[in-house]
Amino acid sequence: MPKIQVRRVYTRGMLINGKWATAVAADDRGLQYGDGVFETLAVRGGAPVQWSRHLARLRRGCQCLGIPVPSERVLADEAARLCRGSGLAVLKIIVTRGPGGRGYRPPDRATPTRILALHAWPEHPQRYGREGIDLTICRTRLGSNPRLAGIKHLNRLEHVLARAEWDEEFQEGLMLDSGSRVIEGTMSNLFLIRGEALVTPDLGASGVLGVTRARIIEWARDHARGAEVRPVALEELHGAEGLFVCNSIIGVWPVRSLEGRRFAIPPWIGTLGRFLESG
Length: 279
Prior knowledge:
CATH class of the largest domain: Alpha Beta
Number of helices: 8
Shape: globular
Order of helices and strands: EEHEEHHEEHEHEEEEHEEHEEEH
């Protein structure tokens, strides 16, 4: 296994159930079992970007797991406390089922744990958005589970193992399912360029329904490009005219190479990037 470079991540502040803190109880089910969901939001000008979309996905995730949904007003107030005056930053919201005893059975009455943390903006080179990135195919496969598909639950071990497969020679890795269908990147969603149309993998059995992915689908349809959501075989990537990945922090990164195949970067990718940054 390649050597993993450890980066120090600075947390600017953290609220746990509304109080300044940095630790949860050892019996919290988010720690014990990954029993919870999370959202990662860009913060610009001291305010979270695409707040309503992220909150809607957080709500769907909580409902899927049967975790009581935190009050929207409480989350908004706490986010405002953390983000005020922060400029460019990253806000992470975690909701777990809360404390519980040993065993998988959820407690009859959950007391959710609410964690909001503000992090420094990642130091990704700006050239990735202009010149593109180098992509690899991960050996680690994603399991299929339609009940959990789409939500950002806390069980991310597949992505952790996939990201450990390379050091710095690539900027992102693509993950496949057991049927060798392309699903997503370790931290992003994927789009293929087919003429004027875009294609993105169907995520009905695995993967995360990204907020930025949804915005790009809307953008493509508004600009008469078309956006098709369907299963994507690995072989299709090499025949595509172009590829790009996206998430709420990086925006959009075009792909310049994948396993020796070079891709042209479309001239409109900058327009798409500016649309995403506009919020």
